[in-house]
Amino acid sequence: MELRPEFEKNYWSELLHFVADERREHEVFPPASQTFAAFEHTPFDDVKVVILGQDPYPNRGQGHGLAFSVPVGVPIPPSLRNIHAELEADCGVAPPPHGNLEAWADQGVLLLNTSLTVRAGTKADRDVHRRWRWQGQGWETFTDAVIEALNAKPARVVFVLWGKDAERRERRIDTSVHRVIVSPHPSPFSAYRGFFGSKPFSRANAFLEEAGLEPVNWGGVADRR
């Protein structure tokens, strides 16, 4: 992914300093070694689906750099339980016993959050800190650049946008080449407003096959140990 020009911009160095300061003063997730895990699992040339969320899980042990995913052995968060429920309703895939989505990432599904780090805390804490401390610090600028780089790919990419933060990126996507699936966030606070029944997995595969691309084996996560 050609993002090197971003690393030379003023906002990038300011963002890195901000995150480093946050890590010194507070607990921040995911760990520094996993902040860019989404790009390590899903190289630019392999990306065929983007699932865009909001920010990482705010509790220790949950976030490991892939949006909505948690390591094997960690209790499955409510949003991910809803994702599993929709996957079963959409494709008949039984919910796996864990929440690790690396198998999707390794097939070309970029699991990206609009912010790559978050301060630890409760949801209420996170919302306040994100609004007043994290928002506007640079992550959104970076993830917008990621979306624009993917939008420039000549091959079709399916963008799955979950939640308002993700939905705002739709205007950056050329739908004459790519395809967009938009729905509310899978959080228990919003899933009932249209996430359930949105069939994002079968629709994404239909868009891929329409372009002559290999569909995603969404059930592959069950094999992850």
From TrEMBL:
Key words, A-Z: Cytoplasm, DNA damage, DNA repair, Hydrolase
Gene3D superfamilies: Uracil-DNA glycosylase-like domain
GO cellular component, one term: cytoplasm
Catalytic activity entry: Hydrolyzes single-stranded DNA or mismatched double-stranded DNA and polynucleotides, releasing free uracil
Pfam families (UniProt xref): UDG
HAMAP family (alphabetical): UDG
Membership in a protein family: Belongs to the uracil-DNA glycosylase (UDG) superfamily. UNG family.
Name of the protein: Uracil-DNA glycosylase
Gene from which this protein is expressed: ung
